[in-house]
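Quiz preparation item.
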């Protein structure tokens, strides 16, 4: 019996250690933005169209005694940070933070961001990347929380037509989503646009 108890304790410790090793919670703050490489079919196409390694993004909040990522999947939801990280390719991620976060993301500002974020929970994922609020995609969610809660545009809006749509795999997905009426002038924000924003600084990178 003692032998089985010892094995159980060792296994439990290994799981806890593995989860904790995924991120350093002491370096994380409310409002941090986390980027990863998704492993979905859409992700491979986004890499081609946007020329970016990072194809999924979420915003980090401390809730219910732990760290969560609010992310636009199907539907928009809160995901435990460790679970979010494990889903990405090779558990690689980058956390970027508003350069002036010490001044701008106060306790009250973080609370406003959480309240704004809560408005989108349960919304459907936007496969068409429309700019209205009927459905939401990942980078749109992050951009709108910052804009509507703090008045900060963390990146410049792009157009769907700004992306490289020439590859056959991209054209196939575009055809599937839009048919022959591709909204090339639709405002969009991409994970790459957020990642390369001069208003953000990198605080954590796990290779």
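Solution:
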């Amino acid at each position: 019996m003692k032998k089985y108890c010892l094995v159980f304790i060792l296994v439990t410790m290994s799981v806890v250690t593995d989860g904790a090793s995924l991120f350093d919670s002491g370096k994380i703050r409310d409002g941090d933005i986390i980027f990863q490489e998704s492993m979905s079919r859409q992700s491979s196409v986004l890499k081609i169209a946007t020329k970016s390694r990072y194809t999924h993004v979420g915003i980090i909040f401390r809730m219910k005694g732990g760290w969560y990522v609010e992310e636009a999947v199907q539907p928009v939801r809160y995901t435990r940070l460790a679970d979010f990280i494990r889903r990405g390719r090779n558990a690689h991620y980058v956390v970027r933070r508003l350069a002036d976060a010490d001044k701008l993301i106060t306790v009250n500002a973080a609370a406003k961001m959480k309240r704004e974020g809560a408005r989108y929970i349960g919304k459907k994922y936007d496969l068409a990347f429309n700019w209205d609020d009927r459905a939401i995609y990942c980078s749109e969610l992050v951009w709108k929380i910052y804009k509507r809660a703090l008045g900060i545009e963390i990146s410049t809006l792009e157009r769907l037509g700004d992306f490289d749509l020439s590859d056959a795999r991209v054209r196939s997905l575009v055809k599937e989503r839009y048919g022959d009426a591709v909204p090339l002038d639709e405002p969009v924000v991409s994970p790459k646009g957020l990642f390369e924003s001069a208003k953000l600084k990198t605080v954590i990178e796990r290779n």
